[in-house]
Design brief:
With 87 residues, the chain is an alpha/beta fold. The chain has three helices and three strands, in the order βαβααβ. It has one domain. The longest helix has 11 residues.
């Protein structure tokens, strides 16, 4: 199955999964908030791994549409209570 992570809704029911895990995905999406909202809708817990804001690699890759700083990571942690963010 192929889905577009930036379009809602994803073809899953609410809380169908215990965990949604996304490693180095959000920085590749223009509409990352939509994707994160859908992951939290379909899973009880969401784990997100982002490039470390201090790593130059996260800033120079042309395929990265987003660059997450420490403030962005705090925003995610505060806005989505069931999301664990690692960078």
């Amino acid at each position: 199955m192929t889905v577009n992570l930036e379009e809602a809704p994803l073809p899953f029911t609410e809380k169908q999964f215990d965990v949604a895990f996304a490693s180095h995905v959000l920085e590749h999406l223009k509409n990352w908030e939509q994707a994160l909202s859908e992951w939290t809708r379909i899973a009880n817990h969401t784990v997100v791994v982002l490039p470390n804001p201090l790593s130059i690699g996260g800033w120079v890759y042309s395929e990265h549409k987003q660059h997450f700083g420490f403030g962005d990571i705090d925003y995610i942690r505060n806005w989505w209570s069931n999301v664990a963010v690692f960078a």
